[in-house]
């Protein structure tokens, strides 16, 4: 995705996240399930497999992603782009919890900063 569109996506995502509370209460039942995922670590194939097996996020198909979206794998940016796009479309049905790899120092140590610099040199 061109850097211009990534910046627009990041800007809009930031705006939406600022409006959301720090703690979100969720409840579920047998009739309204929720898929909980964690530790994608930049592995796009894992995210695509989750969506293939469980369906794409929607009002009827809610998700919680428990952090560690980035680092280690080579497609952290693509994962963030996909998750942020779904968050903007379904802000009440896709929830993103921050993990320890969503930290500046961890990003420097485990590769996300280098990935961003390589893919978006501007």
Automatic annotation (TrEMBL):
<dbReference type="GO" id="GO:0004722">
    <property type="term" value="F:protein serine/threonine phosphatase activity"/>
</dbReference>
<keyword id="KW-0378">Hydrolase</keyword>
<protein>
    <recommendedName>
        <fullName>Serine/threonine-protein phosphatase</fullName>
        <ecNumber>3.1.3.16</ecNumber>
    </recommendedName>
</protein>
<dbReference type="InterPro" id="IPR006186">
    <property type="entry name" value="Ser/Thr-sp_prot-phosphatase"/>
</dbReference>
<keyword id="KW-0464">Manganese</keyword>
<dbReference type="InterPro" id="IPR004843">
    <property type="entry name" value="Calcineurin-like_PHP"/>
</dbReference>
<keyword id="KW-0479">Metal-binding</keyword>
<feature type="domain" description="Serine/threonine specific protein phosphatases">
    <location>
        <begin position="97"/>
        <end position="102"/>
    </location>
</feature>
<dbReference type="InterPro" id="IPR051134">
    <property type="entry name" value="PPP_phosphatase"/>
</dbReference>
<dbReference type="GO" id="GO:0046872">
    <property type="term" value="F:metal ion binding"/>
</dbReference>
<comment type="similarity">
    <text>Belongs to the PPP phosphatase family.</text>
</comment>
<dbReference type="InterPro" id="IPR029052">
    <property type="entry name" value="Metallo-depent_PP-like"/>
</dbReference>
<dbReference type="Pfam" id="PF00149">
    <property type="entry name" value="Metallophos"/>
</dbReference>
